[in-house]
Design goal:
With 592 residues, the protein is an alpha+beta fold. It folds into four domains: 70 residues; 157 residues, 3-Layer(aba) Sandwich (D-Maltodextrin-Binding Protein, domain 2); 126 residues, Alpha-Beta Complex (Dipeptide-binding Protein, domain 1), CATH 3.90.76; 220 residues, Dipeptide-binding Protein, domain 3, CATH 3.10.105. Helix content is 32%, strand content 22%. The strands form six sheets. A seven-stranded mixed sheet has the order 9-10-11-2-12-22-13. The chain has a five-stranded mixed sheet with strand order 19-18-20-14-21. The longest helix has 36 residues. It is globular.
């Protein structure tokens, strides 16, 4: 190509490149830098929206935090280790032998009976689904629930029920329940059915069917005479109750500082439902101070077996005191067949001069008065037969009419016999308060009362031998008005229950007691018991006082424990499978 032509083409290309560059600069200036101001406006707009969203998120978070308590509630949840401290020593947890507070507590946790009590203290089925009674009112047919198992996985059947009551009825087994089961025939009809044939109708019989059932497959080959001392009773019990035996640890080197720790695990197949606690530990202390020290230091969830509320607990919101009334009556039993108290007029005057209402006012807790051999509101209770108390002037007049005159020392006497007697009871703060108030009330009447406070072991011997003029004691009455063992004239014989602590002997009362307990119709029972109540009021074999309480103290709340009246301290475990101690925030579905 000629040089001039190439140069001309190159010059034209340079000119085009220069025009393109100038055009690009113009476009960049117009499209980018010219719109920079608009970009700044857009950036502010974007930042504004971002700030708005952040503000909305912050407000929403604050609202959720404020509304959280409305949509969520702190509720009890399963789990947790429960440590209960109790005063006493473990000796035998077998339910046909257990008597002391530690043994009965463990027995109630490990074993299950045919029946138990609900939160209203009504009898309900446990291992049994129910019972029926034949036309003679003497044959009770009990039906077991299906699928029952022992804690070792073996099936629980009617054979185990029959075995348990056969052992109770066997004299060689030496069960404390022996006397109350004589004459009753127990038979297995099939694996799910048992019959109890009584010699006579007995309205209160179903209440005897709460005793824990024993495993025949473990104990069936053992001689009855060896059952009481079997290792099963102390280190390897197997039951069908809510908790099963896990481990035992004994601490201390002397009886005074000894303690035992019994660990129990939940029984998943418990007939009333798997317990919600992950472990239950019973700590038994021989010394009261050690028990309280362990509780105050936080080692224990709860304590029981104490007679009064410790000072460090009163007014401290960290602790909760559960005061549950017992279906027990506290009475002063007068020895009616010897000494000055064999005089009916004297006993009547002592009742009239006493002021139980003033005593109740000093107890420091709510309770009901006891003014009859039956509890207030119980079947056959009748206010017409309540004892007359707080009538000092009338009591003085009654004794004066009977020939009692005041001696130089101020004590009343008749035919040179002073109105003097002893009052024996266990040495507890409450008993001291009650006994001292009674002594003062009777001193104003002209009676000289010597108070004797004994240890629990000594008092047990005194009570068994009826070695007193009068005694302050509580008797378990329960739901049913059958109080035969406490007031029938046959029951102060050592060969019987020996629970007639007044040695009360009245043909009228005994006949009425027998008639009342052998009628199953409630209306008829009420009628039959009336002569007994009238005789008891007139003869005054005892002074009724009040229903005592059971003290149970916990570190913080224990959920689903219940608060109804119970028949005995170990009945606190009737619904232990529902107890919970842990809490967690849970969304309330009702608010959704």
């Amino acid at each position: 190509m000629p040089y001039k032509k190439v140069r001309k083409l190159l010059h034209r290309r340079q000119s085009q490149a220069r025009d393109f560059s100038q055009q690009a600069e113009v476009n960049i200036d117009r499209l980018l830098f010219g719109r920079f101001e608009h970009l700044l406006l857009v950036r502010r707009f974007v930042y504004g929206w971002i700030l708005l969203w952040l503000l909305l998120a912050l407000i929403t978070g604050m609202e959720l935090a404020n509304l959280g308590p409305y949509y969520q509630t702190v509720q009890a949840v399963p789990g947790g280790i429960y440590n209960e401290g109790i005063l006493g020593t473990m000796t035998n947890v077998n339910p046909i032998y257990a008597t002391n507070p530690v043994d009965t507590s463990l027995s109630h946790l490990i074993f299950a009976g045919l029946f138990t009590h609900n939160n209203q203290n009504n009898l309900v089925g446990c291992l049994a689904s129910g019972y029926s009674i034949d036309k003679t009112d003497t044959v009770y047919t009990v039906t077991l629930k299906r699928g029952l198992t022992w804690q070792d996985g073996q099936p629980l059947t009617a054979a185990d029920v029959v075995f348990t009551y056969d052992m109770i009825q066997n004299a060689n087994a030496q069960s404390p329940l022996y006397s109350s089961w004589q004459g009753i025939k127990v038979a297995e009809i099939n694996p799910y059915t048992v019959t109890f044939t009584l010699p006579n109708p007995l309205a209160s019989f179903p209440y005897n069917l709460t005793t824990g059932i024993l495993p025949k497959h473990i104990l069936g080959l053992m001689a009855p005479a060896n059952l009481r001392s079997a290792a099963f009773n102390t280190n390897s019990p197997v039951g069908a109750g809510p908790f099963m035996w896990h481990a035992l640890q004994v601490n201390g080197d002397t009886p005074q500082n000894a303690s035992e720790q019994i660990a129990l695990l939940p029984f998943k197949n418990y007939v009333l439902g798997q317990p919600k606690l992950s472990e239950f530990i019973v700590d038994a202390f021989a010394d009261n101070n050690q028990l309280l020290q362990a509780f105050s230091s936080g080692q224990l969830t709860a304590i029981t077996g104490i007679d009064a509320i410790p000072k460090f607990i009163k007014g401290n919101s960290a602790y909760q005191v559960h005061s549950r009334l017992l279906t027990v009556g506290d009475y002063v039993f007068f020895k009616t067949n010897s000494g000055v108290l064999s005089n009916t007029t004297v006993r009547q005057a002592l009742v009239m001069a006493a002021n139980p209402a003033a005593i109740i006012a000093r107890l420091g807790y709510f309770t009901f008065p006891v003014n009859e051999p039956l509890l207030l509101g119980q079947l056959a209770y009748n206010a017409k037969y309540a004892q007359t108390t707080d009538k000092l002037a009338a009591a003085r007049s009654l004794l004066a009419q009977d020939g009692w005159i005041k001696s130089q020392g101020g004590t009343l006497e008749k035919n040179s016999q002073p109105l003097s007697f002893n009052l024996v009871t266990t040495d507890t703060p409450e008993n001291r308060l009650v006994a001292n108030m009674l002594k003062q009330q009777w001193l104003e009447l002209g009676a000289n009362v010597q108070l004797i406070f004994e240890s629990s072991n000594t008092y047990t011997t005194t009570l068994e031998g009826h070695s007193y003029d009068s005694t302050l004691n509580g008797i378990s009455i329960g739901n049913d008005p059958d109080v035969f063992v406490y007031w029938d004239k046959s029951q102060f014989d050592p060969r019987s229950s020996n629970l007639n602590f007044s040695d009360y002997s009245s043909t009228t009362a005994s006949q009425a007691l027998e008639a009342g307990r052998t009628r199953l119709n409630p209306q008829l029972r009420v009628i039959k018991y009336q002569p007994f109540l009238a005789a008891w009021q007139k003869d005054a074999p005892a002074l009724g006082l009040f229903q005592p309480r059971f003290i149970y103290i916990t570190q913080g709340p224990v959920y689903n424990m219940g608060s109804s009246v119970i028949n005995a301290p170990f009945d606190r475990f009737d619904n232990v499978q529902n107890w919970e101690i842990l809490r967690s925030a849970v969304t309330d579905p009702k608010q959704n």
